[in-house]
Amino acid sequence: xxxxxxxxxxxxxxxxxxxTRHLTRxxxxxxxxxxxxxxxxxxxxxxxxxxKKRGSVLYASLYTIAGVFFIAGDVIMSREIxxxxxxxxxxxxxxxxxxxLAMLAILVKPAYDRLVEERYWNGRTGWFTATISVCATGALxxxxxxxxxxxxxxxxxxxMQRLTTELLQTxxxxxxxxxxxxxxxxxxxxxxxxxxxxxxxxxxxxxALAGAVCLGIGFRHIRDAYHVRWSxxxxxxxxxxxxxxxxxxxxxxxxxxxxxxxxxxxxxHSLDALPPLDELLKRRSELRDRxxxxxxxxxxxxxxxxxxxxxxSHAQGRAxxxxxDNAPDGSAGxxxxxxxxxxxxxxxxxxxxxHAAGSSRPS
Length: 363
What we know:
Elements: H1 2-50, H2 57-86, H3 92-102, H4 104-121, H5 126-169, H6 173-191, H7 194-273, H8 277-319, H9 352-360
């Protein structure tokens, strides 16, 4: 029983040690992965912090809407002025021409993105400063020219309204012709005004350029906002969830390692209270040898007894004597010459096991 207990305890301790080594390797691997996750999460947080100002949803909305309105204004201006000036027939053709002319802003946008916007976000602001300065200067010039043209147009319209009122009140044909000539001159001067010419030219150029710049800035903020607020946020969330799961698994492994340590210590204490395995094996071998010796002695004794019984029975048969236990009133038997029978008393019949043991011995 002790040998079985020792073997069982040794087997449990060996299994616990093997499981401990396996869990230790797994814990080491998980700790390395946990460290890599920490590094990835830290890098993601730093990238989010670095791009926090680049992904402004407000700037993205503002500049994108402004770019769309600039292009829409260019379309309307091209439809109402250029298409009519070119006398394009039909209703579809003027719109197609106006939209195509306004799409020049889309053609300018890639050049702005590669030459100006990309360099600005990389820290080289020279091109961006120059471009914004030119756009600001053009916008101010356009606003000044449009303001001057608006003032001239307002004065001309006021004069034409006064002359129109006077025309309705006069009956003199000469005065009517004079008034009509003055109205025509005012309209012609308004049409041929250099302020109107430059206002139209600068508006067309500025609308296309401003549309390209606003769309470039707006789309860049949209892309960065998507990258920072969705892509990086999703990556950060996935890494955080994976880190939490890995931390839970590490806690389970540490708890199981603690249980295995307790099991190994318990098995070691139990083994210390029992004799060593080698001693028990040696003792078992000695006991088995002793048992075999005793079995051999028993077998030899059984064979000797059976041999003695056989010899006695054979001698009695030859002498014609009856067995001693068949003599009347229990007296000892006598030999053929009248001497007492000194043969060994008849032993009891061997049991079937003894008889089998004796018959297995070689004669």
